[in-house]
Write a structure and sequence with these properties.
- By secondary structure, the protein is an alpha/beta fold.
- It folds into 2 domains: 18-239, P-loop containing nucleotide triphosphate hydrolases (Rossmann fold), CATH 3.40.50.300; 251-345, no CATH class.
- The chain contains 17 helices and 9 strands.
- It has helices at residues 2-5, 18-24, 40-52, 66-71, 82-94, 119-123, 133-136, 152-156, 159-164, 207-214, 219-223, 236-239, 248-265, 280-286, 291-304, 308-324, 332-340, and strands at 56-59, 110-111, 124-125, 130-131, 141-144, 166-170, 175-179, 183-188, 227-230.
- The strands form 3 sheets. A 5-stranded parallel β-sheet has the order 2-5-8-1-9. A two-stranded antiparallel ribbon has the order 3-4. A two-stranded antiparallel sheet has the order 6-7.
Length: 351
């Protein structure tokens, strides 16, 4: 530097191509669906959830693979764009989180807070408001393991961010808004003992215990979860199978193709990028049903006593299933499959 001011040594200009650095540091997924034995129906659900950005809850006994499946969801999400990477990096920087060596986040975040977390730690806050877990999961996945074990008040504060995809924290002197556009993946045992309707289970739960356990999750919160799916243990024949399952890269290719269809569909909507973000107007425009599909959906609504919000969720999921099949119109098959993914709406769960 002294030599420069003495005009003895010129400085060399340093240039950084941020876009080139970003693509150079894109990581291969740490967890891959190729490692998952069996569970084809659950993988199908995860693919649909990823393709449409839908929230999902996995219900199954201990050891059925719920956490293993959830950890692999980011591996089938579309690669982050440079804009998403910069947004996510800024949030983690504000929170004081250590970034990767490249200085920019290139993989989608996966946040898995413990069930003892407070509402402030989850949504953000403090004297000088910091981003919470839902903002740290922006553009990625928020995984809530054993959902009924979380305090009900903590879960209820998520209802507004799940709808608006941001969270506003107000203090006496100022107000700050953090983005919170994340995919919610939750898991739970079907009963306090972990086994539901299993006559061979080592421990059984009484109807009263079941009601208290499931009552920790409010109906309005469940209505905001598009896909409910039961996870069953993998049989020994599948576990011992040496054949390699379909890798995440193949599933990601189909998910990315479906997302591209949605990007074109919502090109005129600045704040809508995939099916899960659709509002009433977009659902009316893009989820029109023929007579057969409407009759099928009406029968399901009446039999399962579904809410109006659940009706919208079924249409959104059906639209995603159609996109994965590259179909312009929603067919009865798409509606039928979407209805199957509302397990907790069936009789026997909540009385």
């Amino acid at each position: 530097m002294i030599a420069y001011f003495d005009s003895a040594t010129p400085l060399t200009k340093t240039t950084i191509d941020l876009q080139a650095e970003f693509y150079r540091h894109l990581e291969r997924p740490e967890f891959d669906f190729a490692d998952v034995k069996g569970q084809q129906s659950i993988k199908r659900c995860m693919e649909i959830a990823a393709a449409g950005g839908h929230n999902i809850i996995l219900i199954g006994p201990p050891g059925s693979g719920k956490t293993m499946l959830a950890k692999r969801l980011p591996s089938i999400l579309p690669p982050m764009t440079l804009q998403e990477s910069l947004e996510t990096t800024k949030i983690h920087s504000v929170a004081g989180r250590t970034l990767q060596k490249s200085g920019i986040m290139t993989s989608r975040p996966f946040r898995s807070p413990h069930h003892t977390i407070s509402d402030v730690a989850l949504v953000g806050g403090g004297q000088y408001p910091q981003p919470g877990e839902i903002s740290l999961a922006h553009n990625g996945v928020l995984f809530l393991d054993e959902l009924p074990e979380f305090k009900r008040g903590v879960l209820e504060v998520m209802r507004q961010p799940l709808e608006d995809r941001d969270v506003t924290i107000s203090r006496a002197r100022f107000t700050v808004t953090y983005p919170a556009s994340f995919m919610l993946v939750a898991s739970m045992n079907p009963s306090p003992s972990g086994y539901f309707n299993d006559p061979d289970a080592p421990v059984q739960s009484s109807p009263g215990e079941m009601q208290r356990y499931l009552g920790k999750i409010s109906g309005p919160l469940l209505d905001r979860i598009d896909i409910h799916i039961e996870v069953t243990p993998v049989p020994f024949e599948k576990l011992s199978d040496t054949a390699r399952a379909e890798p995440s890269s193949s599933i990601r290719a189909r998910v990315t193709k479906a997302r591209e269809i949605q990007s074109v569909r919502f090109i005129e909507n600045e704040h809508i990028h995939y099916n899960a973000q659709m509002g009433v107007k977009q659902i009316r425009n893009h989820c029109a049903l023929d007579t057969e599909s409407m009759t099928l959906l009406k029968a399901a609504m009446e039999k399962l006593n579904l809410s109006a919000r659940a009706y919208d969720r079924i249409l959104k999921v059906a639209r995603t299933i159609a996109d994965l099949s590259s179909c312009n119109a929603i067919s009865p098959d798409h509606i039928s499959e979407a209805i199957q993914y509302r397990s907790l709406d069936r009789d026997g769960w909540f009385g």
